[in-house]
Amino acid sequence: MRERLVTPRDVAWMLVLMALALAPRLYWASGIGLSDDFIFRGEVNAVLNKQILPDNQAYRFSWWFPAALSCRIFGLTELGLILPFTVTATLAVGLLYLFGKTLWGRPGGIIAALLLAAYPLDFAWSTMVTTDIVLSFYSALTMLLVLRALAQDDPAWRRRLWALAGVTLWLAYHAKISALLLIPVVAVACLANRQRLDRCALWFLATAVPLFAFSSLFLYVLTGDPLFPYHSELEFQGLAGPLAKVHAISPDVFWYYPQLLFFPDSLGDLVHSVYPHALLLLAAVGIVFGLRSSGVVLGWLIIVFLGMQLAVLPADGVWISGFRNIRHLHVVVYPLVLALTGYLVALRARSPLGAVVLLVALLAFSGWECVATAQKTQIAFADRRTVCRYLLELPPKPSYADQGIVIWCTVLDPTNGPPKVKELPADAPSRKARIATITSGYVVTGGAREPYYGCPSCITSASELPAGRWRLVQKFPDLVPPVPWREEALRVWEAIEPPAARGGPQRGRAPVGGFHRMPAHSSGSPTTTALRTSCASGRTTAPPRPLMIQRTRPSVTRERSFTTTRVIPPWLPAGSV
After folding, report:
1. Both 256 and 167 in a single domain?
2. Are strands 318-320 and 442-445 parallel, antiparallel or unpaired?
3. 94 plus 26 within the same structural domain
4. Residue 543 lies inside a defined structural domain of this protein
């Protein structure tokens, strides 16, 4: 009799492993800040307002439905937007435990879960809006159900598992159309286990085909196009129409995914750690010493990677391709981890000590890469979050900043109101000319924005401010030395108004550590009585205070938030720590 897939002991292991994976991810959490987050937030906001935007995200309800549900509960905030992806990534650790146990027993499950917990790409992007994590999760769940169905002895359970696999494939498709790459992977799994294939497998088709047909019919009614997901993806990336040829693929774009697998990214991090290197090394050693992993998992990895790599189309005599993003390659994370797990389990059978040493070395190096990768987005996104909150606390005056601040102050606004910060030009000459015309207000300089695909040259530098016309209001701590994605410290400046424009004392709170001039009130003669009695209520009110100079001191909350090198997790409200 086969052991049940999930026993109380397995539940305990899964909970421990998921907790070990989640705790450091929350500590080095990033939050909202990627270039596409503005788009994704707009999609969720439209759903919350009873609309669905007719773009390439409309059919992807597998991610926006849980995101919208979360925002219904927690509001259109960072917590509401990020929570579904963090939960999905955490559940995936347990899912890979079950996958590893299915193929290689409990040791395989533990190794797979540990490798995923220390995977830099999954570690850092699990606390950001990463829709590809949802695709990866349903893809892995589909493959697990297929393998369980092929291994199941009870015909009733085989039918149920095949039917569930059809449902999860449909859900993966509605996370992203590239889930269709799983169809040949399922075929490979069936071919590799053809001796166990029977008519129960028809339940997979009996479930998946009607669901996909319903999706096409539903989209045809709404859009007039039964292939709307495919065509909308092409249109959104500019791969359809007469201008498609401008997206002719270059060698740099074509080799982007292989470079990400084996070489450091643009910020110097190995987002896939050395897992691909270790996999190739163990595969080569395995040929000599007879080490084997799962053929189905290797086929899954190869098919999905080639599908992503060869996603090119002909257009007017050239080959074109859409934008290739770091997170797009998350779809290979789970099969890569499982393939590596298979070799480590095989090595463990031959040399237990060697397998343990190699696993510990992999986890140690990967853990270091996880922190190095996550810190960059954590620091960059914290800059924008911090300055947006700080601008709201200043006396009402116009605020000016680059687009990276303007957009994200809007994104981080839970009221979803209009932009409160005015945008400065992206090029330095135009920006300097615009700043020269400002006579009142605040300007944000320095800091970081989006470290991967942002525009560092669009950030206003302190050197661009005219000398003698601006005074420093706040300089935030340097959490990292000057680097290309954060060339100088984050600062807020206030324009020194010309005497004619001041018009007397200004009301409001003084800058941190500065002097605050308290306004004088017109209260009659100096002999006015010290207390006034209200005839209507009988209450007494204190007399207005005379003109005075008061030294202000920053609050405890501000001191802790702006002077410590610890970045506050994004889902904590301002002033909560």
Report:
1. yes
2. unpaired
3. yes
4. no
Q: How many domains does the chain have?
A: 2
* Residue 358 belongs to some domain of the structure: no
Taking only the tens place, the pLDDT of each residue in 214-265 is 999 999 998 999 999 999 999 988 888 888 888 899 999 999 999 999 999 9
Q: Residue 559: pLDDT above 50?
A: no
Place of tokens 């909560």: 576
Question: How would you write 163-211 as a 3-class SS string?
Answer: HHHHHHHHHHHCCCHHHHHHHHHHHHHHHHCHHHCCHHHHHHHHHHHHH
Residue 213, token pair as written in the block: 């047909």
**Beta partners for 315?**
318
Query: Alpha-carbon distance 212 to 218, whole Å?
Result: 10
Q: Could you tell me the CA-to-CA distances from 525 to 328, 332, 521, 522 in Å, in that order?
A: 73, 80, 11, 9
pTM value is 0.85
Task: Provide the pairing of β-strand 422-423 with 399-401.
Answer: parallel
What is the C-alpha separation between 384 and 121, in angstroms, rounded?
A: 22
Both 17 and 88 in one domain: the answer is yes
Which pLDDT does position 418 carry in this prediction? 79
Q: Which of 444, 479, 495 is the last residue of a domain?
A: 495
Instruction: Judge whether 91 lies within some domain.
Output: yes
- Structural domain including 24 reads 8-350
Give φ, ψ of 59 to 5 degrees.
Answer: -85, -10
Out of 329, 350, 371, a domain closes at 350
Q: What is the pLDDT of residue 282?
A: 97
Distance CA 76, CA 57 (A): 18
